[in-house]
Amino acid sequence: MRPITLLPFPSAILARAADGARTVAVYENSQGQMVDDVRLALEGAAPVQFIGRLSLDSSGFGIAPDLDSDYVRDRLLEVLNVEVLDG
Predict the structure, then answer these.
(1) Helix, strand, coil shares, percent, the chain, to 5
(2) Taking phi first (over 0 means left), then psi (-120 to 50 degrees means alpha), and beta for anything else, what does residue 72 get?
(3) Residue 69: which H helix or E strand, with range?
(4) Looking at residue 35, what is its pLDDT?
(5) Which position has the higher pLDDT, 82 or 14?
(6) CA-CA distance, 71 to 83, in Å (whole number)?
């Protein structure tokens, strides 16, 4: 799910989307401010793991290109407890 707005947070939509999930991975290009909103929306129905990180560029404004797909893949595999293989 990719929310368009965060206020009000789409809790009911997220809960339906995550129904039956073993775990929910939250990707943000930040320090994880939305993780708590996701945890509150799911009310303990599934564990929530943060898989993003702060993207920095030389300007210091955090406007660098999005994280590379290898990083996101490796974090997802880590959250799912799958061995990450190089190459």
Answers:
(1) 30, 5, 65
(2) alpha
(3) helix 69-79
(4) 87
(5) 14
(6) 14
DSSP string for 12-42: HHHHHHTTT-S-EEE--SSSSTTHHHHHHHH
Residue the block writes with tokens 């009310």 = 43
User: Is the model's pLDDT at 87 over the cut of 50?
Assistant: no
- Would you state the pLDDT for residue 28? 77
CB 69, CB 82: distance < 8 Å: no
Ramachandran angles phi, psi of 38, nearest 5°? -65, -45
Q: What is the DSSP letter of 67?
A: P
**Distance separating alpha carbons of residues 39 and 16, to the nearest angstrom:** 14
pLDDT tens, position by position, 43-63 = 888 888 888 766 665 655 555
Look at the chain and count its residues: 87
Q: Are 66 and 55 in contact (CB under 8 A)?
A: yes
